[in-house]
Fold this protein.
Amino acid sequence: PTATKVDLPSTHGISSYLHKSFVRFIDQLKAELWSAATGCISTTTDLWSVGQTKATFLGITTHWIMVDEEALNWTLCMKVIAF
């Protein structure tokens, strides 16, 4: 089948959708981290590229400690924010 211009989303529409999705993701992540983390949150990044394809990647990870005071338990938590 042949797609017409009407069938395809505009670049503005795609950009707007991606931005709104990212903002929602960040808001959800903040809420999750604030409810789980009892102290500091550490963020780590890693940047690398593949020589043959010239592709570049960025990984962003957060780490925090969740404390269960009743069980006297500490849990090291981690979440990949972006890749």
In short: The chain has one domain: 5-82. Residues 3 and 36 are 47 Å apart (CA to CA). The two ends are 34 Å apart (CA to CA). The chain is about 30% helix and 40% strand.
